[in-house]
Each structure stands twice: as structure tokens, then as C-alpha cells.
Amino acid sequence: MRSDLSQLTTLTHPLITHKLAILRDKDTSPAEFKATLSTLTALMSHHIFAHLNLRDVTITTPLEDMQTQKLLKAPVITSILRAGNGMADDLFTLLPEASMAHIGMQRDPETHEPVFYYEKYPTDIATRQNILVDPMLATGGSAIESASRLKKLGVTDIVFACLVAAPEGVAAFSAAHPDIPIITAALDRELNDSCYILPGLGDAGDRIFNT
């Protein structure tokens, strides 16, 4: 399956590359991994939040009225548990007027298919833009299922962000959800036989939470 890269944005910046190299290093401690992930998410946020929907408004400065743009309805930041919290928490810190949603997915160790176990959303999620996050886009199964669940709730505006993506995951996600842009810090080479990304950075959830 070939990847359709038309909806993929791969970020290229020396500082992003440097921070990602720290995350990839097997000798990086859990504390340093988590701190670096926080910084990297902040660096990526410029591109993630570039998709925010602003509206024309009139405000009054201390000197005069002016035309500008504001968020009239903040987005929902949706974390694919558990590793997604490593990115979602930092995006939420940068945009505290947002709401947080959670979708619990875990990989079946035999089939490598996503297994759903939890969800929690704000009541008005269908009317709001969603930023869906998970550090790894490997097979694409968890991201595809999570985006499908959001759409079943009535969500029509979704952006997906991850740290590292595999071509196989990009291809699968693009085929299932061609309307959703993907933002990643790196497009890696391939998946191995256990469906881990190569060269990758290992299991992001285990490294974030030291498990």
C-alpha cells in the first residue's frame, strides 16, 4: 500500500530533529523523555494550532475599536490513551480554554489490532473542532478507530498529530479518513514484524510512564 502524503505535514526544523533524537535514544531516562516530549509538543504546537478556526470580531482596545480574529469556540483536545496524554497535557497547557477528551485503546499483542476500553467526551463535542493526539502512528489502527468514534458523535473537523509515523500507518489512516490532516515530527522507514516503527523510539507509553 502506498502512502498518500497529500494530507501529511512532516515538520522539518533543527530543534525538532534534535529533541526527537533525544527521545529516540534508548539511554534517555523516563524523566528526560517526558520533559523532552513536553518541549517537542510545544514546538509542534505552532503547526498544530495553525488549524484553529478563528472568527472575525470587533474588540475595543484602550484607544479604539479594531477588527481582529478570536476563537469563539475552543477546540477539544482528544487523547488516545495512554500515551496520548504525553502530548495532550502540554497542548492543554498552551490552550487552557480547550476541553479534554479521552479514548482508551490498547493493542492486542497477538493480532496487533486496537482494543477499545474507555471514552469520555465533553457534551458538546459534536459542535467543536477536535485535535486528536497519539505519539505514534504505527499501523494506524488506534487512530483510525478513534477518529471513527469522533465522527459517529457528529464531529466534522478533526486534526491528527503524532510524533512519529510509519508509512503503513499514514497510508491506512489516509485511506480511512482522507479529510483529516496529519501532522508529525518524523516519517520513519517501516514497521517491523511486531508492528513497531523503525527506527522509531520504542513504546512511547512505557517510556513516558516508566513501565
Largest sheet: 8 strands, mixed
Radius of gyration: 17 Å
Poorly predicted segments:
none
Number of helices: 6
Description:
With 211 residues, this protein is of the alpha/beta class. It has one domain: Rossmann fold. The protein has helices at residues 14-24, 30-48, 85-94, 141-152, 167-176, 204-209; strands spanning 8-10, 55-60, 65-70, 76-81, 99-107, 114-120, 130-133, 136-137, 158-165, 182-187, 190-191, 197-198. Helix 1 (14-24) runs antiparallel to helix 2 and helix 2 crosses helix 3 (85-94). The longest helix is centred in the first third of the chain and has 19 residues, at 30-48.
In short:
The protein is an alpha/beta fold and 211 residues long. It has helices spanning 14-24, 30-48, 85-94, 141-152, 167-176, 204-209; strands at residues 8-10, 55-60, 65-70, 76-81, 99-107, 114-120, 130-133, 136-137, 158-165, 182-187, 190-191, 197-198.
What key phrases describe this protein's structure?
Rossmann fold; 211 residues; alpha/beta; globular; two-stranded antiparallel ribbon; 29% strand; eight-stranded mixed sheet
SSE layout and pairing:
Elements lengths: L7 E3 L3 H11 L5 H19 L6 E6 L4 E6 L5 E6 L3 H10 L4 E9 L6 E7 L9 E4 L2 E2 L3 H12 L5 E8 L1 H10 L5 E6 L2 E2 L5 E2 L5 H6 L2
Helix pairs in contact: 1-2, 2-3
